[in-house]
Design brief:
The complex is a heterodimer of chains A (110) and B (358). Chain A is an alpha+beta fold and 110 residues long. Chain A is built from 4 helices and 3 strands. The longest helix of chain A is centred in the C-terminal third of the chain and has 26 residues. Chain B is an all-alpha fold and 358 residues long. Chain B has 3 domains: 57 residues, no CATH class; 77 residues, no CATH class; 166 residues, no CATH class. Helix content of chain B is 73%, strand content 3%. Chain B has 12 helices and 2 strands, in the order αααααααββααααα. A two-stranded antiparallel ribbon of chain B has the order 1-2. In chain B, α6 packs across α11. The longest helix of chain B is centred in the last third of the chain and has 49 residues. Chain B starts with a helix and ends with a helix. The chains are: A alpha+beta (110), B mainly alpha (358). At the A-B interface, α2 and α3 of A face α2 and α4 of B.
């Protein structure tokens, strides 16, 4: 089996879960790189070149609110779930549990 | 050290809409800084930027539309090739159509026919030029890209970063402005002098005597005020160009009005039935040993061709000026952005040195 095909399919499988992963970690304010590290620690790594444009897209969709902090050594843009974002996260979580349950059942059904 | 980061961000934001550039620049700049250790070396920067990957692909993610036939990596090259091929093909097709119309003996050389021939050639040229070019270029790029997909494509590295280009507008050089002013004054003066009196010396000479003058003096007197007006506009335009140094909205407008007026007056002048004397034409027919009917037919055909060339030159000149003005506007926006964000344009030599440091 071509490893390239497997890699592509895994990327495709994970792509749909990225937004859920990102939203779930923004109940508390995070800046881009801290979020990147946190997701890596939790073994859901996302590439920087995917995360940064995604944060911007979620912000433009009003799912995140942001503010620049200049209290630290360098300016940082912090992201936090907006009210809409919280509702979307709840809906996506529900959908994820439902889908995950059904897929697990499918996979166990030999 | 920051030069590489600046070039990277520049290469991303130059592909994005102007209104988003500042925000994405700030976000990216500090996100990259966060990813670097304190006192980062050039190697650290290279590692971070190489991990960030191709600026073209990153910009595409910021643009948030990803269904394409031509990928972001070759999109710019594709567009440049497409417009170049379109331009060349359009000109070739337009000239072929025009030549076909000009030498078609069934076409009467009237003003409406001249206009029709030009419009038809421009329309057919641009439409056919674009479609043929689009088909050839896009399909070639698509095939090229897909045939290379199976082979591992070259991984993007910071060595592929372009230099931040110095912003160049279409400005008039000091010598060209001076030359333009002098030539306009001389040409304007000569044209005025010609229409006022020198025209009398053009004609059929026998024994040192102009027995059949080419131009009708009454027509010339009618056109004298118009020639004065156009010469005045031409000199004003040259003076404005001399002062302005670059194309601006007013210059483009005055230039447009000047070309339209010049075109209308010239076309109406050479197409007037009385402008060129019949006696002169008769003498020409006699001299070349052809009948008067053929002579008039050749004469009209010549006027028709000259008119078409004249209109084409006017259209090309106005189009080029408008294009240069738009290019100036576009580049001014980028220049403003570079100044605001302290981007320093670097030349190719610096770029090569930067690459050697990798």
């Amino acid at each position: 089996m071509d490893q390239q095909i497997i890699d592509n399919l895994i990327i495709e499988l994970r792509r749909g879960t990225l937004i859920l992963a990102v939203l779930s970690q923004l109940k508390k304010p995070q800046y881009g790189y801290s979020l990147l590290q946190k997701l890596e620690e939790l073994e859901v790594p996302i590439e920087a070149n995917t995360l940064y444009p995604l944060l911007r897209r979620l912000e433009s969709q009003n799912l995140l609110q942001s503010s620049w902090s200049t209290d630290e050594s360098r300016p940082r843009k912090y992201y936090l779930l907006s009210e809409d974002g919280q509702k979307i996260l709840a809906a996506l979580t529900e959908e994820w549990r439902h889908t995950s349950h059904n897929i697990s059942r499918l996979l166990e059904n030999k | 050290m920051n030069e590489l980061i600046q070039r990277y961000i520049y290469d991303v934001i130059r592909r994005l809409p102007n209104e988003e550039r500042t925000q994405i620049h700030d976000e990216l700049y500090w996100q990259i800084q966060d990813m670097l250790p304190s006192n980062a070396s050039i190697e650290d920067i290279n590692i971070v930027l190489n991990n960030m990957g191709s600026p073209a692909k990153l910009a595409e993610k910021y643009r948030a539309h990803s269904r394409y036939m031509i990928s972001p990596a070759i999109y710019d090259t594709h567009n440049k090739t497409l417009w170049t091929v379109t331009l060349v093909l359009s000109i070739v097709i337009a000239f072929l159509v025009l030549a076909f119309k000009l030498f078609d003996v069934s076409t009467d050389p009237t003003f409406m026919n001249i206009l029709g021939a030009i419009l038809l050639s421009l329309l057919l040229g641009s439409i056919l030029g674009f479609f043929i070019s689009f088909t050839i270029v896009t399909i070639s790029f698509y095939i090229y890209e897909n045939s290379n997909k199976n082979h591992q494509s070259k991984k993007w590295t910071t060595a592929d970063l372009p230099a931040i280009q110095e912003v160049k507008g279409y400005s008039f050089t000091k010598s060209s402005r001076m030359r333009g002013l002098i030539v306009t004054i001389i040409l304007g003066g000569l044209t005025f002098l010609f229409v006022a009196s020198l025209y009398q010396y053009v004609g059929w000479y026998e024994n040192g005597q102009n027995i059949y003058p080419l131009f009708d003096s009454q027509v010339m007197h009618t056109y004298l005020p118009l020639v004065l007006l156009i010469a005045g506009i031409a000199v004003t335009l040259a003076c404005l160009k001399f002062l302005a140094t670059k194309w601006n909205r007013w210059l483009v407008f005055v230039n447009f009005v000047y070309h339209i007026l010049l075109m209308i007056v010239t076309l109406s002048f050479i197409n007037q039935p009385n402008t060129f004397s019949t006696a002169f034409k008769e003498q020409m027919a006699q001299n070349f040993n052809i009948n008067m009917f053929d002579m008039l037919s050749y004469w009209d055909r010549g006027i028709f061709i000259v008119s078409v060339i004249f209109v084409l030159l006017a259209i090309i000149s106005v189009a080029v000026n408008i294009w240069q003005y738009m290019q100036n506007q576009r580049q001014a926006l980028m220049q403003e952005f570079c100044i605001k964000n302290k981007f320093n344009p670097v030349n190719d030599k610096t770029r090569m040195e930067g690459n050697n440091g990798n």
